[in-house]
Amino acid sequence: MPESTRLDVRKIGWGACAIVCGIAFAVAGAWLLLRATGPAGNTPPHANSAPAPRLQTAPVPERAAYFAEKERLTTGYGWVDHEAGVARIPLAEAMRLTAARAARQEERR
């Protein structure tokens, strides 16, 4: 067999050993560093010191009100900023106007 196609198993083993030793060295160094410096500044002192999350007692009415407001905003007319002259139009109307404008620009070409 030609020399260039043979694998040197001994060199592969030494390479794998070097990788494993490097990982072990990094883990040991990180552990020693954490022991020496203590916990991070943003880590709470006790895991149980944070208050429990408060759950909604009746999320359905709030959800319905949220979606009703979004429906009102996307289907109605109104002012966003009256002084600047920025108005809100229904989403379907905006899509129709945008498509018509694109069609006019395509006809000009």
Could you walk me through the main structural features you see in this protein, from its secondary elements to its overall organization?
This protein is mostly helical. Helices cover 59% and strands 6% of the residues. It has helices at residues 9-37, 59-75, 91-108; strands at residues 78-81, 86-88. The chain is flat and about 75 Å long. The mean pLDDT is 87.
Topology:
Blueprint: H1 9-37, H2 59-75, E1 78-81, E2 86-88, H3 91-108
Antiparallel strand pairs: 1-2
What attributes characterize this protein structure?
single chain; mainly alpha; 3 helices; 6% strand
Brief rundown of the structure:
The protein has 109 residues and is mainly alpha-helical. The chain is 59% helix and 6% strand. The protein has helices at 9-37, 59-75, 91-108; strands at 78-81, 86-88.
Q: What order do the helices and strands follow?
A: HHEEH
Going across the biggest sheet, name each strand in turn: 1-2
Strand percentage lies at: 5-15%
N- and C-termini, Cα separation: 69 Å
pLDDT averaged residue by residue: 87
Q: What is the gyration radius calculated from CA atoms?
A: 33 Å
Q: Mind describing the biggest β-sheet?
A: 2 strands, antiparallel
Number of helices: 3
Poorly predicted runs of 5 or more residues: none
> What general outline do the C-alpha atoms trace?
flat
Number of strands: 2
Structural classification: mainly alpha
